[in-house]
Amino acid sequence: MSEVRGKEIAALIINLNVNLVCWSRLHLEQIFSTNGKEEGKLTIQQFNILIYIRDFGINTVSEISKAFCLSKSSTSLTISKMVAKGYLIKEAPEEGDDGRKIYFHLTEKGHASLQETESTIMEVAGQHFDSFDAEKRKTLFNHLYMINHLLITGGTVNEGKTYTF
Protein backbone atom coordinates (compact mmCIF):
# COMPACT_ATOMS: atom_id res chain seq x y z
CA MET A 1 0.00 0.00 0.00
CA SER A 2 1.32 3.44 -0.88
CA GLU A 3 1.85 6.17 1.66
CA VAL A 4 -1.32 7.95 2.79
CA ARG A 5 -1.12 11.75 2.54
CA GLY A 6 -2.76 14.29 4.80
CA LYS A 7 -5.00 15.53 1.99
CA GLU A 8 -6.40 12.02 1.55
CA ILE A 9 -7.25 11.88 5.24
CA ALA A 10 -8.81 15.35 5.04
CA ALA A 11 -10.95 14.23 2.09
CA LEU A 12 -12.19 11.23 4.06
CA ILE A 13 -12.99 13.42 7.07
CA ILE A 14 -15.01 15.78 4.86
CA ASN A 15 -16.83 12.77 3.41
CA LEU A 16 -17.42 11.39 6.92
CA ASN A 17 -18.81 14.75 8.04
CA VAL A 18 -21.24 14.85 5.10
CA ASN A 19 -22.31 11.27 5.81
CA LEU A 20 -22.82 12.05 9.51
CA VAL A 21 -24.98 15.06 8.66
CA CYS A 22 -27.08 12.95 6.26
CA TRP A 23 -27.35 10.12 8.81
CA SER A 24 -28.35 12.58 11.52
CA ARG A 25 -31.04 14.12 9.35
CA LEU A 26 -32.42 10.70 8.50
CA HIS A 27 -32.36 9.26 12.03
CA LEU A 28 -32.33 12.15 14.49
CA GLU A 29 -34.20 15.03 12.88
CA GLN A 30 -37.45 14.26 14.74
CA ILE A 31 -35.69 14.94 18.05
CA PHE A 32 -35.08 18.60 17.26
CA SER A 33 -37.29 21.58 16.56
CA THR A 34 -36.68 22.84 13.05
CA ASN A 35 -37.85 26.41 13.72
CA GLY A 36 -37.39 26.77 17.48
CA LYS A 37 -41.12 27.10 18.10
CA GLU A 38 -41.84 23.56 19.34
CA GLU A 39 -42.17 23.71 23.10
CA GLY A 40 -39.72 21.51 24.95
CA LYS A 41 -37.50 20.84 21.92
CA LEU A 42 -34.14 22.42 21.16
CA THR A 43 -33.00 23.28 17.67
CA ILE A 44 -29.81 21.56 16.53
CA GLN A 45 -28.00 24.89 16.78
CA GLN A 46 -29.25 25.49 20.35
CA PHE A 47 -28.23 21.95 21.29
CA ASN A 48 -24.72 22.47 19.91
CA ILE A 49 -24.35 25.86 21.61
CA LEU A 50 -25.35 24.37 24.97
CA ILE A 51 -22.78 21.58 24.50
CA TYR A 52 -20.02 24.06 23.63
CA ILE A 53 -20.79 26.17 26.69
CA ARG A 54 -21.05 23.16 29.01
CA ASP A 55 -18.17 21.04 27.71
CA PHE A 56 -15.67 23.53 26.30
CA GLY A 57 -16.32 26.74 28.25
CA ILE A 58 -16.92 28.66 25.02
CA ASN A 59 -19.36 31.18 26.42
CA THR A 60 -19.17 34.59 24.74
CA VAL A 61 -20.87 35.70 21.53
CA SER A 62 -17.47 36.13 19.86
CA GLU A 63 -16.25 32.65 20.83
CA ILE A 64 -19.51 30.96 19.85
CA SER A 65 -19.78 32.81 16.52
CA LYS A 66 -16.20 31.81 15.71
CA ALA A 67 -16.77 28.16 16.71
CA PHE A 68 -19.87 27.88 14.50
CA CYS A 69 -18.70 30.15 11.65
CA LEU A 70 -21.67 32.46 12.19
CA SER A 71 -21.91 36.22 12.23
CA LYS A 72 -21.90 37.84 15.67
CA SER A 73 -25.34 39.31 15.01
CA SER A 74 -26.82 35.92 14.12
CA THR A 75 -25.16 34.34 17.16
CA SER A 76 -26.36 37.15 19.39
CA LEU A 77 -29.92 36.71 18.15
CA THR A 78 -29.85 32.94 18.78
CA ILE A 79 -28.37 33.40 22.26
CA SER A 80 -30.92 36.12 23.11
CA LYS A 81 -33.71 33.67 22.25
CA MET A 82 -32.05 31.03 24.43
CA VAL A 83 -31.86 33.50 27.33
CA ALA A 84 -35.54 34.41 26.83
CA LYS A 85 -36.50 30.71 26.87
CA GLY A 86 -34.55 30.23 30.09
CA TYR A 87 -31.77 27.98 28.76
CA LEU A 88 -28.99 30.48 29.44
CA ILE A 89 -28.24 33.32 31.82
CA LYS A 90 -26.05 36.35 31.20
CA GLU A 91 -23.14 37.16 33.46
CA ALA A 92 -21.27 40.44 33.49
CA PRO A 93 -17.48 40.40 33.22
CA GLU A 94 -15.35 40.38 36.34
CA GLU A 95 -13.49 43.47 37.49
CA GLY A 96 -10.59 44.16 35.13
CA ASP A 97 -12.07 42.11 32.29
CA ASP A 98 -13.25 43.69 29.05
CA GLY A 99 -16.48 45.43 30.10
CA ARG A 100 -18.06 44.82 26.70
CA LYS A 101 -18.05 41.04 27.13
CA ILE A 102 -21.07 39.16 28.35
CA TYR A 103 -20.66 35.57 29.49
CA PHE A 104 -23.38 32.96 29.13
CA HIS A 105 -23.96 29.97 31.40
CA LEU A 106 -26.50 27.16 31.37
CA THR A 107 -29.46 27.46 33.71
CA GLU A 108 -31.02 24.44 35.40
CA LYS A 109 -33.52 24.39 32.53
CA GLY A 110 -30.64 24.50 30.04
CA HIS A 111 -28.89 21.58 31.74
CA ALA A 112 -32.15 19.60 31.94
CA SER A 113 -33.03 20.25 28.28
CA LEU A 114 -29.53 19.30 27.17
CA GLN A 115 -29.55 16.09 29.21
CA GLU A 116 -33.03 15.16 27.99
CA THR A 117 -32.04 15.75 24.35
CA GLU A 118 -28.81 13.76 24.77
CA SER A 119 -30.77 10.92 26.36
CA THR A 120 -33.27 10.90 23.48
CA ILE A 121 -30.43 10.91 20.94
CA MET A 122 -28.79 7.96 22.72
CA GLU A 123 -32.08 6.07 22.72
CA VAL A 124 -32.88 6.68 19.04
CA ALA A 125 -29.31 6.17 17.80
CA GLY A 126 -28.85 3.20 20.14
CA GLN A 127 -31.86 1.46 18.64
CA HIS A 128 -30.45 2.04 15.16
CA PHE A 129 -27.05 0.59 16.06
CA ASP A 130 -28.59 -2.29 18.01
CA SER A 131 -29.96 -3.48 14.64
CA PHE A 132 -26.34 -4.19 13.59
CA ASP A 133 -24.95 -7.61 14.36
CA ALA A 134 -22.57 -7.82 17.34
CA GLU A 135 -19.41 -7.97 15.23
CA LYS A 136 -20.37 -4.87 13.19
CA ARG A 137 -21.21 -2.95 16.39
CA LYS A 138 -17.85 -3.86 17.89
CA THR A 139 -15.99 -2.91 14.70
CA LEU A 140 -17.81 0.42 14.45
CA PHE A 141 -17.22 1.16 18.14
CA ASN A 142 -13.49 0.40 17.90
CA HIS A 143 -13.04 2.51 14.77
CA LEU A 144 -14.95 5.46 16.21
CA TYR A 145 -13.02 5.18 19.47
CA MET A 146 -9.71 5.23 17.60
CA ILE A 147 -10.76 8.19 15.42
CA ASN A 148 -11.77 10.18 18.50
CA HIS A 149 -8.58 9.19 20.29
CA LEU A 150 -6.39 10.26 17.37
CA LEU A 151 -8.22 13.57 16.96
CA ILE A 152 -8.07 14.39 20.67
CA THR A 153 -4.44 13.42 21.18
CA GLY A 154 -3.13 14.61 17.84
CA GLY A 155 -1.80 11.12 17.22
CA THR A 156 0.20 10.88 20.43
CA VAL A 157 -0.27 8.10 22.92
CA ASN A 158 -0.25 8.74 26.67
CA GLU A 159 0.09 5.43 28.42
CA GLY A 160 -2.34 4.93 31.28
CA LYS A 161 -4.46 8.00 30.48
CA THR A 162 -8.18 7.48 29.99
CA TYR A 163 -10.08 9.66 27.53
CA THR A 164 -13.75 10.48 27.78
CA PHE A 165 -15.69 10.94 24.60
What does this structure look like?
The protein has six helices and two strands. The protein is mainly α and 165 residues long. It has a domain at 26-131: Orthogonal Bundle (Arc Repressor Mutant, subunit A). The model has no long low-confidence stretch (mean pLDDT 89).
Features:
two-stranded antiparallel sheet, Arc Repressor Mutant, subunit A, mainly alpha, single chain, 6 helices, 61% helix, 5% strand, 165 residues
Order of helices and strands: HHHHEEHH
Q: CATH homologous superfamily of the domain at 26-131?
A: Winged helix-like DNA-binding domain superfamily/Winged helix DNA-binding domain
What is the C-alpha radius of gyration, as a whole number of Å? 19 Å
Tally of helical runs: 6
